[in-house]
Automatic annotation (TrEMBL), chain A:
This is Carbohydrate ABC transporter permease. InterPro entries: MetI-like (IPR000515), MetI-like_sf (IPR035906). It comes from the Bacteria. Its main location: membrane. One of its GO terms (cellular component) is plasma membrane. It is a multi-pass membrane protein. It is found in: Cell membrane. GO terms for biological process: transmembrane transport. Keywords: Cell membrane, Membrane, Transmembrane, Transmembrane helix, Transport. It comes from Rhodovarius crocodyli.
Automatic annotation (TrEMBL), chain B:
It is found in: Cell membrane. The chain crosses the membrane at residues 69-90, 102-122, 151-179, 200-219, 257-277. PROSITE patterns: ABC_TM1. CDD domains: TM_PBP2. Its main location: membrane. This is Sugar ABC transporter permease. SUPFAM superfamilies: MetI-like. Belongs to the binding-protein-dependent transport system permease family. GO terms for biological process: transmembrane transport.
Length: 288, 289
């Protein structure tokens, strides 16, 4: 009797489990499709060229070519330089974007000054224009002052983000006015308020925007392709492209190894801070 | 007085950068579109609408325009729908939620150029795993990226793969904003099946999110460039030319800046029209409170 009483919940749990099966099955199949490029990229990156060309369907290689493929990439491709260039570019862009956008966002949200609505109108207009539109004149401008193929050319055009101004304005609007009033009553100067009160409070919005900005610029090909010609200032995206077109040829193993090495840094950062990434993209998804 | 001085001082750097890097270049691009500006061909002169007349006769541009519409017409709806399905499947119950979310989100944070190479290998006519699978069942797979009949489909598939996870995350954010009590109330009121509850509660409340995701997907897919530049360069025989790639080659390869600016203007008008439609729909349809 008591045995039966204990075991009654079991069938219900089992049926709950079976109801999960179709859902998990669909997700797993779709998940495998989404992971296929990564799986085959990894697989080819450790295979011998002749095995890749036999188009065998096995994922694991008959004889491993890790050292051969990755060795060739590390010898011939300046991975460290491309990654460092990507870091300098993204860091520079983000620094100036925040430097311009945080004070402006605060002023538009909390300070009353003549022309404020006018300025905000331009911010909204700016949101409508994709970055590709001013590209031609910016290229001509940079060429005329001899800045092509420099870090400045990669960084400067992206330093102003109307989207960041908009984001920080919305964020600072939610801060209670009392904090600022209290600081003023304490005799703080306006500049000190920005530095001591506003900046520390801006971090949640700043991290979300930072993730959005770094992901966008790290992966961008359009603008670096326009302004950078040589290897010296090439970003990770350009680095892969150079190796593809100039050196890899039919060596798919090495090409896949290069792709793995260049994709890894941002992917690892994502896997370590998954929640922040997803939140960052979801809250800033606005601009895409 | 002190407040307005501070206000101006704090917006000034951003305003200057805005004028110099965004406003003036954008206006200049619009202006170029009405000139015959070519790099190294002497001073440009005003030619009115001539660039646009030329566009209407330019088979390459028309192909590029149609291809862009085709790409947007496939990628936007499918990636929105797939994003919604994934979000609903993942959000409904807890097990493995974080794992699946990460899997589908991976393409969003992956270096597009590198992943394009991976796709090229997958889609390779002779050594690619996809055609190897097709051969295994006794058929011959197409030359996915070099056949003018399949190249846009292949690029669209990559575009869907890139965008679905992004849409999924936006839908998941929208779903968590819907109170659980509403769905439970609907169940009490007789909406027994999951589909009924979705149709009566979730879908209407998801309206604003959906409109937002649709607009973003449209605008993101109009901007397709990377995969074309890496994998096909508009080929074979212009079968995969898209607006931004045509603009890029006209402007930066052939140095016909005026003509390229005219294509940019077409691109800008499409983006603005999509945003205008969004605000129109937003005004009329998506009121649910």
């Amino acid at each position: 009797m008591s045995d039966a009483a204990i075991s009654t919940p079991a069938p219900r749990e089992a049926s709950a489990f079976w109801r999960e099966v179709p859902r998990l099955l669909i997700l797993s199949v779709l998940g495998l499709v989404f992971l296929a490029p990564y799986i085959w990229m990894l697989s080819a990156s450790v295979k011998q060229t002749d095995e890749i060309f036999r188009a065998s369907m096995t994922l694991l290689p008959e004889s491993w070519a890790i050292i051969q493929n990755y060795g060739r990439v590390l010898r011939e491709v300046d991975i460290a330089r491309y990654l460092l260039n990507g870091l300098i570019m993204c860091g520079g862009i983000l620094f100036f974007q925040l430097l311009f956008a945080i004070p402006a966002g605060y002023a538009l949200a909390k300070l009353r000054f003549p022309g404020r609505e006018f300025v905000f109108g331009f911010v909204m207009l700016g949101l409508l224009v994709p970055a590709h539109v001013p590209a031609l004149p910016l290229y001509i401008g940079l060429a005329s002052i001899g800045w092509l193929d420099t870090f400045a050319a990669l960084i400067v055009p992206s330093t102003i983000s109307v989207f960041a101004i908009f984001l920080f304005r919305q964020f600072f609007k939610q801060l209670p006015d009392e904090i600022i009033h209290a600081a003023r009553l304490d005799g703080m100067r306006e500049g000190t308020i920005v530095w001591r009160i506003i900046l520390p409070n801006a971090w949640p919005a700043a991290t979300a925007f930072a993730i959005f900005s770094v992901v966008a610029h790290w992966n961008d090909l359009f603008w670096p392709l326009i302004v950078v010609t040589g290897h010296e200032h090439a970003t990770p995206a350009l680095g892969v492209l150079h190796f593809r077109t100039e050196e890899a040829g039919d060596d798919f193993g090495a090409l896949m190894a290069a792709s793995v090495l260049m994709t890894a840094p941002l992917l690892l950062a994502f896997l370590f801070a998954q929640k922040r990434f997803v939140e960052g993209i979801a809250t800033t998804g606005l601009k895409g | 007085m002190r407040e307005s001085a501070t206000g101006w001082l704090l917006t000034l750097p951003a305003a200057l950068a805005f004028i110099l890097l965004l406003l003036v270049p954008t206006l200049a691009a619009v202006g170029f579109a009405f000139t015959d500006f070519e790099l190294g061909a002497g001073p440009p002169s005003w030619i009115g609408l001539e660039n646009f007349y030329e566009l209407l006769d330019d088979q390459g541009f028309l192909k590029s325009f149609r291809n862009t519409l085709l790409y947007v017409g496939i990628v936007a709806p499918v990636s929105v729908l797939l994003g919604l399905v994934l979000a609903l499947l993942i959000e409904s119950r807890a097990p493995l939620r974080g794992f699946f979310r990460a899997v589908f989100f991976l393409p969003v944070v992956s270096l597009t150029v590198a992943m394009a190479s991976a796709w090229q290998y997958l889609l390779h006519p002779t050594i690619g795993p996809i055609n190897a699978m097709i051969r295994a069942v006794g058929l011959t797979g197409p030359n996915w990226l070099s056949d003018s009949g399949t190249v846009m489909l292949s690029l669209s598939a990559i575009g869907i793969w890139e965008g679905a996870g992004f849409n999924m995350v936006l839908f998941m954010a929208g779903l968590t904003a819907i109170p659980k009590e509403l769905r439970e109330a609907a169940q009490v009121d007789g909406a027994r099946s999951g589909w009924e509850r979705f149709r009566l509660v979730t879908w209407p409340l998801l309206g604003p999110t959906t409109l937002f995701v649709v607009t973003i997907s449209l605008i993101r897919s109009v901007r397709v460039f990377d995969t074309v530049a890496v994998l096909t360069r508009g080929g074979p025989n212009k079968a995969s030319e898209v607006l931004l790639y045509t603009m890029y080659t006209e402007g930066f390869t052939f140095l016909r800046l005026g003509y390229s600016a005219a294509i940019t203007l077409v691109f800008l008008v499409i983006v603005l029209a999509l945003m205008w439609i969004q605000t129109k729909v937003l005004d009329k349809r998506v009121h649910y409170v």
